[in-house]
Amino acid sequence: MANIPRPRVAVWREVWLADSETFVRDQVRAMQRWDPFLVGLRRRPNVLGVEADLAPLATTRLTEARTQYLGTLGLRGRLVAGLREAGVDLVHAHFGTSATHALPVARAAGLPLVVTFHGYDVTRTPTLRFPFGAEYRRRLAGVFDYASRLVAVSDFIAGELVRLGAPEHKIVVRHIGIAIDDGAPAHLSPDDGASSLTPDDGASSDGQGPVDARRGVVFVGRLVAKKGVDHLLEAVALLPGEVRAEHPLVVIGDGPLRAGLESRARELGVDARFLGHLPPEEVRRRFAAARVLGAPSRTAHDGDAEGFGMVFLEAAAQGTPAVAYRHGGVVEAVVDGRTGLLSDEGDVAGLTENLRQLLADPGLARSLGEAGRARVLADFDIRRCTARLEDLYDEVRAER
């Protein structure tokens, strides 16, 4: 019997691929019934090992400005021809900003469009700064009209789509999920080197078991206002001196606020190490060595809010509980009192107290971490989450 070719989905991202967008890479890798074809406008070197199948432009300052203001103008014929030649059945764009550029190409190619909305693409306050002004909202209305499905990564983002005028019958919530090792989390494996971590790596060497050896606070994410690292530094500075001495802060990630945050840490006397971008396997190791994830995302001055927070799932998969704010989609990623501890958005004193509880009580941290891992295994395995996405693709393809 001849092999039946799999249907093909063009996964559209404006740039392939930002180092922080592991969730896009992992979702593509988890597809089983659909064949992904990676397409966008620009390509760039990345630490994720991802290369686009079709991206006409290299990333330079000139091409960045060109695509931001002109989108697919001048490139549409090439993109449409590429999709047709590849036998694409459907276009799936990540982020509303990318969808506004994918829209004219999908329409010209006669292909259905699915869009996943993640956060800033629907939460930022309209401004004069392109593309988040009236023109972006006008283009977004076109996306709402043409797209077959509008995928929200959380109930919070679904509500934001409704607020922006998206047709409710097109909105579906689909969690992306994360890639999960079938075995125990890293810190419980005798062969991953966790027991040999030095104190500077965030684990003790006093002969205790690997769970009690967990030490310190870890943050992972882009260094932008929404992520609340300034509040995390202030909260750590308010901890009792002996707790701060035993539990240093490790900041993983980069962004425009890095220099200012490093300066602020010095002003506050916080022992914080800024490590920049790290490979995913090293991030998992850092999660496994830490007592707690500190990630107090909050609403930025431009309205940017956390759509869900994949970092909470990634930490939970390693048995690491979270301390965060009740904010945006975070309340769906962290179950307060069960997989982490939440305080009101902007309550730095409450953030400090929650950090103190988990840093002072390894048993509590362990129980929350174990519950978090169990929840991830049950509800957020990317293989099952992606299978549900492919079911949605099937529905859209059948409708068209």
Name the overall outline. Answer: globular
- In oligomeric terms, what are we looking at? single chain
Report Rg: 22 Å
Helix content range: 40-55%
N- to C-terminal separation? 28 Å
CATH superfamily heading of the largest domain: Glycogen Phosphorylase B
The appropriate CATH architecture of the largest domain is: 3-Layer(aba) Sandwich
Number of strands: 15
Number of DSSP helices?
16
Mean pLDDT equals 90
CATH topology name of the largest domain, in short, is Rossmann fold
Q: In the CATH hierarchy, what is the class of the largest domain?
A: Alpha Beta
**Main sheet overview:** 6 strands, parallel
* Whole-number total of structural domains: 2
Unreliably modeled segments: 188-211
Q: Indicate the structural class.
A: alpha/beta
Q: Could you name the key traits of this structure?
A:
alpha/beta, 2 domains, 400 residues, Rossmann fold
Helix and strand arrangement:
Elements: E1 8-12, E2 15-16, H1 22-29, E3 35-39, E4 42-43, E5 57-58, H2 61-70, H3 76-85, E6 90-94, H4 96-109, E7 113-117, H5 120-123, H6 134-146, E8 149-152, H7 155-163, E9 171-173, E10 217-220, H8 229-237, H9 241-246, E11 249-252, H10 258-268, E12 272-276, H11 280-289, E13 292-294, H12 310-317, E14 322-326, H13 330-333, E15 340-344, H14 348-360, H15 362-379, H16 382-399
Parallel strand pairs: 1-3, 1-6, 2-4, 4-5, 6-7, 7-8, 8-9, 10-11, 10-13, 11-12, 13-14, 14-15
